[in-house]
Amino acid sequence: MQRLWKALRGRTSGDGGFAMVTVLGVGTVMTALMLVSLAYALQVTPQARRDQDWNAALSAAQAGVDDFVARLNKADSYALSVDCSNVAMKGPNAGVNTCGWTSSTPVGWQAVKAADPTKGTFHYDPTYTAGSVRLTSTGKVRNTYRTIDVRVARGGSTDFLYYTDFEDADPENTVVYPNGTSADCGGTGSANGKYWYQKASGYTGTLSTNSLSGHRSGCTEIAFAGGDKLDGRVHFNDTPGIWGGTSGGEGSQATFTQGFETADPNCPTTASTSSSLRGKCWRYYPYDTTYYSSGVPFFAGSAGAKYADKLDLPDNSAEFINYPGCVFWGDTRIRFNSNGTMTVWNTMSNGRTIVNPASPAGTDCGVASSYKPTSASDPRPNAGQTVPVPTDMVIYVRNTGTADTCVPGQIVNGSSSGSSASDVIPQGSGTTAREVRDISYFNPDSATTKTTRTFRWSNSSGWSRLSSGYSVTDSAPNDAHPVKMDCGQGNVYVEGTVNGRVTVAAENNVIVTNDLLLRSTAAGDAPAGTDIVGLVAANSVQVYHPVARSRSNVNQVTSYCSSTVDGFPTFNGNNNQNYTCTWTQGYSYGNSYNNLSYPGQTGSSGTRWIYGSIQTLQHSFLVQSYDYGGDIGTLSVRGSIAQRYRGIVRQGSSGFLKDYGYDARLQFQSPPYFPQWTNASWSAQTTGELKPKYVGQ
Question: Which of 360-364, 371-375, 381-385, 651-655 is least confident?
Answer without folding.
Answer: 651-655
